[in-house]
Predict the 3D structure of the following.
Amino acid sequence: AKSNGRGTVCFYEAAMNASLQNRRALEMGLRQALVRDEFLLHYQPLVDARTHEILGFEALIRWAHPERGLVAPSEFISIAESCGLIGEIGRWTLRRACLDARSWPGQVKVAVNLSPVQFKDRQLVEAVRAVLEESGLAPERLELEITESVLLHDSEAVLSSLHRIKALGVQISMDDFGTGYSSLSYLRSFPFDKIKIDRSFVRDLPHDTNSVAIVRAVVGLSGTFGISVTAEGVETSEQARQLALEDCDQLQGYLFSRPIPAAGIPELIGRLADA
Ligand code: C2E
Ligand code: CA
Ligand code: CA
Ligand code: CA
């Protein structure tokens, strides 16, 4: 605050109260959303970088708010994490996604985002096992996406959970690679099957030489560890072409499809197959 006048202080207090109130309202709303079944999943395809064949779908949560309409996860996931609701929301998401995926063609996978906070739950691995059993989905068709921030806290415990999840036959992806504290050495110490290059490195392709160099380095090192590489946020055919040339395995982005409701998946599979 440049001015120390009383008016400025009041303005800030009012703004803080408003955001605190907004937060409380969101927290209450999230609790009710679970009871009233207001969450839903949209799905975005992951395609083969060379053939553009659909290999899987990522589940992305939305909240059908009674007054505000569809609310994006960026507006409620971090609140759910800090007020202890992410466990229940995460279990709902995992179950819904596995149940939805049962009706897709047999080889098509489903990717589900896990919050780092969910790793504090000692029942996480058991919950994954139970959902696979209930849904009857082949474990190989489930991928769990985690961000590198999960490795910052108690990485011994996280590592043990990751190994137990992998032992179920489920795949693990490192999401948003390159944005956090990542170091390529994580690729050696953690059992990832896939890494997803963050869309900030895709945005300026094919012209930005730094982005090209990063994609090349990630693909090169991943290859030596047998890890597959997905590029996120692919919006143009030039980006798609470049990423295929750089030997990325899979692509995801608005070029192929925005996230869509589960009901639209059969049609989308047909349309992309004909393209
Ligand atoms: P994310 O896991 O990195 O998901 C990709 C986000 O990028 C999605 O946003 C997707 O709609 C968007 N996106 C996809 N293709 C493009 C593109 O070509 N261009 C651009 N500009 N954006 C693209 P969304 O659905 O709003 O999700 C945002 C974040 O919220 C996700 O980032 C993820 O971190 C989190 N999230 C979503 N669903 C869940 C969930 O079920 N559980 C948890 N814990 N987090 C979730
Ligand atoms: Ca993700
Ligand atoms: Ca991502
Ligand atoms: Ca992200």
Notes: The chain has a mean pLDDT of 90. The pocket of calcium ion (ligand 3) is lined by residues 175-176, 196, 232 (CB under 6 Å). Residues 13 and 19 are 10 Å apart (CA to CA). Strands lie at 39-48, 54-65, 69-71, 109-113, 142-147, 171-177, 194-197, 228-231, 250-251, 260-261.
